[in-house]
Amino acid sequence: MKKNAVLCVLISFVGIVTGVYIFNNSRGTVEIIEKESYYSNFHVENDKVYIECVVTIKNSNNYKKTINLSARFDEDVNIGLLKQAKIYAFSSSNIKEKFEIKQNSKDTFDVVFVGDFGGTMKKHDRTLPDIDIDIVD
Predict the structure, then answer these.
(1) How many whole angstroms separate alpha carbon 49 and alpha carbon 93?
(2) Which of 7, 29, 34, 114 is 20 to 30 A from 16 via CA?
(3) Is the pTM of this model over 0.85?
(4) Tens digit of pLDDT for each residue in 33-87?
(5) Which residues, 6 or more positions from 88, have their beta carbon under 8 angstroms from its beta carbon?
(6) Between 7 and 107, whose confidence is greater?
(7) CB 112: neighbour CB atoms within 10 A?
(8) Three-state secondary structure call for residue 133
(9) Among residues 5, 114, 103, which one has the least CA distance to residue 69?
(10) Please, what is the end-to-end C-alpha distance for the chain in angstroms?
(11) Which helix (H) or strand (E) holds 44?
(12) How far apart, in whole angstroms, are the C-alpha atoms of residue 116 and residue 22?
């Protein structure tokens, strides 16, 4: 009888701890702080378009997040700057496309969205694009 009671208490404890962990971590978000982010510049090199932005991201989760960033440039495709609308961000040194943000913090990244050149050296506008966050883990 004692073993069953101890087992029930142990199972209940594990369930409560697991539930609290899931509840606390499910409430957090990873979001772009638009008022601290901006479009910087663009250039074309070797048939690639490099769209430079400074992006501040806030992670309100209780654990580190790894993310990828992408953006849609539909109007830049329409005017001929880019061949495809959805392109992905790399660090400004072009070596990685995954960004890590520590738990309960915000960080600013120099990013470069890279796409195929469509033939026209004209940018639609100079505003920050709509950026999508893809959480890797």
Answers:
(1) 15
(2) 29
(3) no
(4) 999 999 999 999 999 999 999 999 999 999 999 999 999 999 999 999 999 999 9
(5) 68, 69, 70, 97, 113, 114
(6) 107
(7) 23
(8) strand
(9) 114
(10) 43
(11) strand 38-45
(12) 41
Could you say which DSSP state residue 119 is in?
S
92: pLDDT confidence band, cut at 50, 70 and 90? Answer: confident
C-beta atoms surrounding 76 within 10 Å: 25
Helix (H) or strand (E) holding 10: helix 2-26
Tokens of 26: 């499910």
- What the block records as the tokens of 3 is 């073993």
| pLDDT, mean over the chain | 87
- Phi, psi (degrees; rounded to nearest 5) at 20: -65, -45
* CA angle in degrees (0–180, nearest 5) for 85-90-94: 125
Spatial contact of 61 and 24, defined as CB atoms under 8 Å apart: no
Residue-wise DSSP of 51-85: EEEEEEEEE-SSS-EEEEEEEE-HHHHHTTSBS-S
